[in-house]
């Protein structure tokens, strides 16, 4: 969209990985300091809250995690537009297909 230089965009390399339920269980067992008392998956509600769409809520969550890195690499001026666009894109994808966002609740016991 012309907001940042292509070279700067190409040099920004941040990975995201979300583990499966089995991977979480395996890592807790391998680490060995905790027992896994409970691990449950929950589907996240996608309803509009406080006038914000689901996409806007996702964008705010992602912004909370990535804002400092993006700011340092690209500068602060792109943040609002970037995350407004991201929220809109999430909403568009959710309208096209049924996506079931999930989260985990984990109860660990110190061994």
From TrEMBL:
UniProt cross-references to InterPro entries, sorted A to Z: MeTrfase_7, MeTrfase_capping, SAM-dependent_MTases_sf
GO molecular function, one term: methyltransferase activity
Pfam families noted in UniProt: Methyltransf_7
Swiss-Prot/TrEMBL GO biological process terms: methylation
UniProt cross-references to SUPFAM superfamilies, sorted A to Z: S-adenosyl-L-methionine-dependent methyltransferases
Keywords on record: Magnesium, Metal-binding, Methyltransferase, Transferase
Regions annotated as coiled coil: none
Claim: Coiled coil is one of the keywords in the record: no
Protein name as annotated: Anthranilate O-methyltransferase 3
Organism phylogeny: Eukaryota, Viridiplantae, Streptophyta, Embryophyta, Tracheophyta
């Amino acid at each position: 969209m012309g907001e940042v230089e292509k070279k700067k965009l190409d040099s920004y390399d941040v990975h995201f990985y979300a583990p499966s339920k089995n991977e979480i269980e395996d890592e807790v067992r391998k680490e060995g300091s905790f027992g896994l008392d409970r691990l449950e998956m929950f589907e996240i509600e996608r309803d509009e809250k406080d006038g914000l769409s689901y996409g806007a809520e996702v964008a705010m969550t992602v912004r909370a995690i990535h804002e400092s890195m993006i700011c340092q690499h690209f500068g602060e001026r792109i943040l609002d537009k970037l995350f407004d666009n991201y929220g809109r894109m999430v909403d568009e994808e959710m309208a096209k297909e049924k996506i079931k966002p999930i989260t985990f609740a984990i109860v660990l016991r110190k061994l």
